[in-house]
Specification:
single chain; about 80 residues; alpha+beta; 3-stranded antiparallel sheet; 1 helix
């Protein structure tokens, strides 16, 4: 498969944001025969940086990230690069 790359100047990017959704689960543990213990676990999914662009063919570009922290770090980096 042939990959196509494009190079744009900074004016092409209008804005960005870190996005994610959370999946919450309730876990039940029973250490002995007494009352079970419930705990909630939140898990992030669909983590990405979304770029708003001036390209009418692709006005929103989503770049997958490994974690919410990574997305927030990249958002801060973009802020430093574009907003000085």
């Amino acid at each position: 498969m042939e990959e196509i790359y494009r190079i744009y100047d900074f004016s092409w990017v209008l804005g960005w944001r870190a996005t994610w959704s959370e999946d919450e689960r309730i876990n039940m543990y029973r250490a002995d025969s007494s009352v079970p213990t419930l705990s909630r676990t939140a898990r992030e999914k669909n983590v990405a940086i979304e770029l708003q662009t001036t390209d009418p063919q692709q006005p929103l570009i989503s770049i997958p990230m490994s974690s919410r922290r990574a997305a927030e770090t990249w958002s801060a980096r973009l802020n430093a690069m574009f907003n000085g």
